[in-house]
Amino acid sequence: MKVICDQSALAEALGIVGGVVATRTPTPVLTCIKINADDGRLTLAATDKEVGLRLVMDQVEVDQPGETLIPADKLIQIIRECQEPTVTLESEKQALFIRSGESTFKVYGFDPAEAPPVKVFDESSVDCEISAGDLQVLITRSIFAAADEHSRYAINGVLLERKGKNINMIATDGRRLAVASGSATTGNGDSSCIVPSKALGIMRRLLRNDDATVRLSIDDSQIHVHVDDGGNQASLSSTLVEGRFPPFEDVIPKDQDKRVVFNRDTLRAAVRQAALLTNEDSRSVRMHFQNKQLVLTSHAPEMGEAEVHLDLPEYEGEEIEIGFNPNYLSDALKVIDEDQVIFEMKASNKPGVIRTGKEFTYVLMPVNLS
Question: Which architecture does CATH list for 2-114?
């Protein structure tokens, strides 16, 4: 194999594919990326047996077709450090030579035949199509609320619900719930599955062109995704999370009687200021709504106190004091694109709700103010 590649495009592609490889495994080939040069294109593939990814790039010149299997970490490090606009990859037996300007690297690999297979996307099995930009928003507005290694395995991922062209992505860690809603460009029937957070994180990195077309296919045990931006293409497959997702509709309050509209940036800045004087033992910000004004306060022993005031000319409801983890508030405000957000409450011991129309709903459990 001998191929000349655009250095920046190759570095970006390897960085994405490298996110799939296993980090702790007794099987060395699972830490590798398989490189195949053929028909004027370069295909990079990797799998950890749960998630598999094939990425095809065309910013290459193939002088000699072939394939090789190389450890991902050193390959990525070397390509990133290359300073020339192009790099040459040339394989010889189970070694790969990387040449950039006056620099040459030789990296030992494995027999490409030992690489576990990575599924090729089946175009005949497509359930729906959605633009990359729309899918990017759905993932961003949900994945941050997913549990991290929770004992309830079913919430270690994001629930993807589709009814025709309507798509919801829902995540929770038991203390908060994020529901993102959007639409596909095409879609038949209904489907529902829990997608692992790792797969969604890699998928989000593939959605670099908002106008690219994304095709989704879901079967009993896997989700398959194909991204086509007219040039580079990528196919990702992932084993689904087993178990039943909690009935999230029951968690969303329907009787909130206190409501206020915030400018997103203004509220986010106030929360960040109040959070400056919190610590791990006192991770809460008190929000006191009264007389058309919000006062945010925080206190950390041996550190100090913070008090931030915001005018609320459109506040609807009685006076209330309620506390939240400021990190959880900021997480939601970071993924909202709209200028205004709606904040709803019921009581100091009841969940608060942040909304932006029908596209995003965020339910957040309060913290004890005592």
Answer: Roll (3.10)
